Amino acid sequence: MNCRHCNAPLLHKFLDLGFAPPSNAYLTKDDLNRPELYFPLRVLVCDCCWLVQTEDFAQADALFTADYAYFSSTSSSWLAHAKRYSEDVITQLGLSSERYVVEIASNDGYLLKNFVAAGIPCLGIEPTTKTADAAERLGVPVLREFFGEALATKLSDKGKKADLIVGNNVYAHVPDINDFTKGLKALLKPGGTITLEFPHVMRLIEEVQFDTVYHEC
Ligand SMILES: [Zn+2]
């Protein structure tokens, strides 16, 4: 496999956790009588750009299906963090009804509901059906698509460029991070702001956070 950022061959194993089924792909009662698919769970590191990345086995569209079962709002501390973030960023950037906020992987609307409440126009981009349904019930507009440069250009051509783009815990799930990043650039208004949250590899090493490594991309 080659590095998903710089395309150099990946020669170094960073972590080997054996085999694991995709997380959040819960089994039904009927599934218990069927074989379950396990993938090798290996993490590699690129010695050109030092991106730490899982070895690829499954395709995103096979895992982020209508049955995808992770709802961000189940974590009360995460909801509190999202509310605090929203209040801070609205103040810092002086966001108003004239501005436009886009969240990539908006899940069940756990974050954007705060912008809806503040009267700030927003859009969530979220490919999984059940979470998108939940967000829409909260009044959050959702575009049910995977994000990348093609989608960003389409939105931009329609005059839907964003003053603020938010991406929380999504980068690590994106198969083509370069295309995703070009999409962020294409969607952002000149002078706009992007905020991203993602796990930091130093923290993973220091605190032995091996359980944050799983298949979902
Ligand atoms: Zn690389």
Tell me what the structure shows:
- With 217 residues, this protein is an alpha/beta fold.
- Helix content is 29%, strand content 21%.
- It contains 7 helices and 8 strands.
- The strands form 2 sheets. The chain has a 5-stranded parallel beta sheet.
- 27% of the residues are buried.
- Zinc ion binds next to loops.
Q: What's the layout of helices and strands?
A:
Blueprint: E1 12-20, E2 39-45, E3 52-54, H1 60-63, H2 76-93, E4 101-104, H3 112-117, E5 122-125, H4 129-137, E6 142-143, H5 149-157, E7 162-168, H6 177-187, E8 188-197, H7 201-206
Parallel strand pairs: 4-5, 4-7, 5-6, 7-8
Antiparallel strand pairs: 1-2, 2-3
Helix pairs in contact: 5-6
Bound molecules: zinc ion (ZN).
What features would you highlight for this structure?
binds zinc ion; 217 residues; 3-stranded antiparallel β-sheet; 7 helices; alpha/beta; 5-stranded parallel β-sheet
Bound molecules: zinc ion
- Taking all Cα atoms into account, the compactness measure Rg is 18 Å
Proportion of residues in extended strands: 15-25%
Strand tally: 8
Tally the helices: 7
Q: Low-confidence parts, pLDDT < 50 over ≥5 residues?
A: none
Q: Shape from CA axes?
A: globular
Biggest β-sheet strands, sense, barrel = 5 strands, parallel
